[in-house]
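Intended use. Records like the one below are meant for learning the mapping from a protein sequence to its folded structure. Do not use them to infer anything beyond what is encoded.
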Amino acid sequence: MSIEVKRHPHPPAPPTGDYGFGQVFTPHMFKLDYREGQWRNPRIEPYGPLSLDPAAKVLHYGQEIFEGMKAYRNPKDGSVHMFRPDKNVARFNISCGRMCMPEVDPDLFMEALNLLIDIDRDWVPEPPEALYIRPTMIATQTGLGVKASTDYLFYIIIGPVGSYFARGISPLRLKVEERYVRSAPGGTGYAKTGGNYAAALLPIKQAQTEGFDQIIWLDAREKKFVEEMGAMNIAFVYEDRIITAPTGDTILDGVTRDSVGILCRDFGYNWIEEHPAVAKVCADADTGLLKEVLACGTAAVVTPVGVMHYGGKDHQVGDGKEGAVTRRLREALCEIHGGNSKLHPEWIFKVPVHAKV
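Structure written out for the chain above:
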């Protein structure tokens, strides 16, 4: 299928200053419809509101998925590239399978990303800021009744972003969530679907009201083992190893998490995937055995953790500041993002410059 392009007649100029996160969007978006058992009408058109029937299934049964990815500008030559988009495309289709939704052809997906970013490439900011990419699929069939939709809309919106956290890379204060759980075995935890995030809003809001930046999720069965954070993965740095929970049906298989694991092995760190016991990592923070804790995700990149709150008390990690391992991983990943590293050139997908359409 060829992608039809309808340009914005009077596109606004790219903004300047602080973008915030997820507040500013480019003048164009991509859309693709699914009806009668097949995808049709791929198009790029001016960014604007969606029209949905009040009985659209997404509004009642939460049949929705999305992805989060980034594109960057190379400061040396001005070119634009995406970071490991093939991983996000593959994960999107895994989410499709779990949520009973039709997969999107990976080649068409990539073509849409390349063309949309190219059309709005002037909106890609200079590093360390980035262009955030949000592919989304929603169930659009009209009608009540709990069953999978027959109609869907796949769309992509993009926009420049700054730091995910208001305080930049300052060490995070995290609250271990001891009442609520994010996902259970056999559930949708490994799918990037809105319901997983909606269920997290209350405990995150409660934690932030108490002065914390985010929460740490525990396993649903025993509430003894660390799984991930509110919107990213987490790893624990010891003198001889770095521990993170293994992926499975309760944990999102993070692209940044995978990248950090590969970089750890590149640097000679002992990256281990096992279930971290929350009581042990907090006790090890108190004794100094636990050296660092890092959060990692597309939005946060690699961010240090300074404090974990568990069992009614704060457990400071190290001196409460960013550690050497966290800094090395963050700087290495940021250099790769900027296209200025010799490490893993296969992770960089340059956005081609298309002829004017």
